[in-house]
Write a structure and sequence with these properties.
The structure is a single chain. This protein is mainly α. It is 56% helix and 9% strand. The strands form two sheets. A two-stranded antiparallel sheet has the order 1-2. Strands 3-4 form a two-stranded antiparallel ribbon. The longest helix is centred in the middle third of the chain and has 20 residues.
Length: 181
């Protein structure tokens, strides 16, 4: 049995999953584990689009395409950083840990790499993505070596290079602009 999930449905979802862990090599004890199994918010959906494709869409539909693109580029840099600066989306201890990770990664970067993210010391979206990929429920992100974190950050920065992050509202606006919603 299959299902078709539209972008509109995914756009409206607030993904919540159950979390259940057990140690490798030991079968899970269902009764004991059921007490620790709970709801959690796994991720926020992140929409991103190729920079050239976005510029093309805006030019074909808007007189102020360059101004709009500059606004979206600024939002691309700043919105993920709001998470790191304590926007209220995360617990305070998580914010403090992410700030420490930012300092750790920034210390490992070259001047050119730091320059890509001005006015910030690091590009926040690759940092959040790398930290998310490296964190584990057993050994938190704090246990990750700085060079491993920096390498993961660089890989994410490369993967996301040339793409523009769109917040939920902007994503909806772009979809409406091109006639898909």
């Amino acid at each position: 049995v299959g299902a078709i999930v539209s972008n509109e449905l995914v756009d409206e979802m607030d993904p919540v999953k159950l979390r259940f862990y057990w140690h490798q090599g030991k079968p899970p004890d269902v009764y004991a584990a059921s007490e620790g199994c709970g709801l959690f918010r796994e991720n926020y959906l992140v929409h991103h689009i190729d920079h050239k494709a976005l510029a093309s869409i805006l030019r074909s539909t808007s007189v102020e395409a360059n101004d709009t693109l500059q606004i979206l580029e600024w939002e691309h840099l700043t919105q993920p950083c709001e998470v790191l600066l304590g926007s209220g989306l995360l617990k305070e201890e998580s914010v403090q840990l992410l700030k420490q990770l930012m300092v750790t990664v920034a210390a490992e970067l070259s001047a050119d790499e730091v320059g890509e993210c001005q006015p910030f010391a690091v590009c926040c979206l690759p940092l959040l993505s790398a930290a998310s990929q490296l964190s584990s429920p057993i050994a938190g992100i704090e246990a990750v070596a700085p060079t491993v974190l920096s390498d993961a950050y660089r890989a994410e920065a490369e993967r996301l290079r040339g793409r523009i992050f769109l917040g939920k509202q902007r994503y909806r606006q772009i979809r409406r602009l091109v006639g898909f919603g």
